[in-house]
Amino acid sequence: MSILPENKPHKPIDTPHNFFIYGATMSGKSYLAERFPSPLFLNTDGNSLAQSAPAIQIRNVKNANGRGLKQSVINQLDEIIRALQNENHSYKTVVVDVIDDVCVMLEQAICAGEGVQTLADIGYGKGFSMFNTVLQELVMDLKALPLNVVYISRAVTEGEGIQAHEVPSLRTKYYNIVNGNADLVIYTQRIGKRYIRKVTDRRKEYIREQINDSKILHILDNIPGVYDKPVKTSIEEQKKIIKEQEDKQTEGDK
Known about the structure:
Helix content is about 35%, strand content about 20%. It has seven helices and eleven strands. The protein has helices at about 30-35, 75-85, 100-115, 125-145, 170-180, 215-220, 235-254; strands at about 20-25, 40-45, 55, 60, 70, 95, 150-155, 155-160, 165-170, 185-190, 195-200. This is NTP-binding protein.
């Protein structure tokens, strides 16, 4: 039997499965994540009983002497992922709530294993290399699951006055690893009693008719920016943007 597909057109199926949600405290991040199909929360803030979805508390547990770890978050996450891969279950979404805390816990676990206080104490940059490898493996292992994956992050404010805006609080180098494997980045905001959501970044232009999961479709239909057509940037506009970026870089170097 040939491994080649039959040479005829087929109807495209293009449903996003990896999501990054960020916003300030009480802006509706976890509420939105609970709307995803059959979610399992990997919770870091000790608030797992405050939501209706099943949850596992993610944490490092120190030995009685306080020097080593009785339970490492690295091993705990690995065990959970293997269970989701190999056991019979009905989960369709895994939610990391919040990824900021998971990154801190990964650092703590590596430092505890090496008997140091910080990653920098592990010589020749080895500590940072170990962390990057562990985080990349976590992200890739989650992505390889036949499930939706939702990362939740807190937000911090950048800029001042009218230029102030919220960005993910996850460190940029860590955000790039996680976001590099996300299909959609969604920002949540609370204004008075109103909750607002919008897409701030996406891997590609999604076409509504090509999304074959009705629950995912219902969520995306209520978030502006998912199906927006990309805006073509002229050569002149591109040159202007590049010049502005270069000017900012020059100003910052002074």
